[in-house]
Amino acid sequence: MNIGMLWFDNDKKADLAAKIKRASSYYKEKYGQTPNVCFVHPSMIPKEGKSEPGIELRTTRSVLPNHFWLGISTAGGD
After folding, report:
1. Residue 47: its pLDDT value, please?
2. How far apart are CA 14 and CA 11, in angstroms?
3. pLDDT value, residue 66
4. 3-class secondary structure for 33-46?
5. 12: Cβ–Cβ under 8 A, 6 or more apart, which residues?
6. For site-directed labelling of 6, which of 20, 25, 42, 48 has its Cα 20 to 30 A away?
7. Quick one: pLDDT at residue 46?
8. Among positive and negative, which fits the CA dihedral 13, 1, 43, 64?
9. pLDDT per residue as tens digits for the range 5-39
10. What are the structural domain ranges in the chain?
11. Ranges assigned E (strand) in the chain
């Protein structure tokens, strides 16, 4: 993924899947495509590892906690 959308969500009442779903819905509305990859800080991954279906969840320390970097994964790797 070369280009993506950075989303901030610090809602303490929502789980990770709900936050990704909100961000994904906004991404689709704004760009007309559904993202298929989301990068988050490793500290945000719950023990259950639950995520939004159809979106690959990856971790990176480059993304701050409570931030989500969504986009479309490229065919030749990211």
Report:
1. 74
2. 6
3. 97
4. CCCCEEEECHHHCC
5. none
6. 48
7. 81
8. negative
9. 999 999 999 999 999 999 999 999 999 999 999 99
10. 4-71
11. 4-8, 37-40, 56-59, 67-71
Q: Write down the residue that tokens 């909100």 correspond to.
A: 22
**More confidently predicted of 44 and 3:** 44
Share of the chain above pLDDT 90, in %: 76
Amino acid at 68: F
CB 24 within 8 Å of CB 70: yes
d(CA 6, CA 70) in angstroms, rounded, equals: 7
Q: Which amino acid is at 52?
A: E
Average pLDDT over residues 43-53: 76
Structure-token match 């065919």, residue found: 75
Tokens of 70: 């969504």
